[in-house]
Amino acid sequence: MPFLEAAGRGESPAWVEVHPQNYFCDGGPAHRWLNAIREAVPVSFHSVGLSLGSPNGPDPAELDALARLTDKFQPAMVSDHLSWSILRNDKIPDLLPLPMTGASLAHFVGAVERTQERLGRTILIENPSRLLSFRDDNYTEPEFLAEIARRSGCGLLVDVNNILVGATNLGFDADDYVDAIAGAPIGEVHIAGHTVEIDPDDGALTAIDDHGSDVSDDCWRLLGRLLARTGPLPVLLERDNNIPAYAELAAEAALADHFLRQMTAHAA
Q1: What is the residue-wise DSSP string for 38-82?
Q2: In terms of residue numbers, what domain contains 31?
Q3: pLDDT tens track for 75-109
């Protein structure tokens, strides 16, 4: 369970985000823990299993389980990804990219609409962490996401680290991306760390979204650029691997809080 934006002095998080798939059970200790957390701080559900971009749309069993859990715990936000992970009933343990075409857009919008209708609420869609693009893409990623939001009524979850990963791997400009997406209906922001591998033959760089590294200076800078354009937003610090001592996490979260306080003061 990654910790999110801290309360400012590092004593405790202001809210937390969980993967709801970890709680797809009828009760027991997992539900007791989640209920205790929810009573202490607001909780957000960040789904990784709907596979909205698959040919058949959201997985019915996953969607029903998410709907039951959402009804029971009433999270502050529910989100999933611009991705797919199911093909011919085979589940792939990854969030795979979609082609950014008109047909793909229409299909994904339909999947989001079905999901929102089943859950009875608006969801957020997160920008992907991409290693590749498709030859027939005719939208930029910010254009594609903004159009999904416009057509379906969903909001967006902007992962700043994913922007940096894509910029490294695909060669687009991260600052231009932030400027383009800032006007969309953003409901949440993620920050995280990534690693970069260097090909020994040609020196090409490959960024890997590992959620196990410190937030980079570039990520902090890009977060500031985004918040300067949007104003304050909920900011999540994602750390799923190589988790340091809580004091280190709290220090990173306090830095995110510093950005938010700056934006609030500027807006006032």
Answers
A1: HHHS-EEEE-S---TTSTT-S-HHHHHHHHHHHHHH--SEEEEES
A2: 16-267
A3: 999 999 999 998 877 888 788 999 999 999 999 99
